[in-house]
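Design job #97: recover the sequence.
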């Protein structure tokens, strides 16, 4: 069975022996990953975290009543 890599594996010693990491991780891939993180992943995670917090507050108020009641 063939192993499929979505990203190129980075050699650990490339970071510590003075070689540039850009040799292993091409600039285009790094730019695409940065854009994916900033445009897609972080906004989606932010909405999910705020939504989960709101849901938790809603359920707690449903079970314990509104604040001050």
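Job complete. Output follows.
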């Amino acid at each position: 069975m063939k192993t499929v890599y979505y990203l190129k594996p980075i050699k650990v010693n490339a970071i510590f022996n003075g070689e540039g990491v850009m040799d292993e991780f091409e600039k285009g891939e790094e730019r695409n990953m940065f854009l994916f993180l900033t445009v897609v992943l972080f906004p989606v995670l932010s909405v999910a975290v705020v939504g989960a917090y709101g849901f938790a507050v809603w359920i707690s108020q449903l079970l314990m009543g509104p604040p001050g009641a």
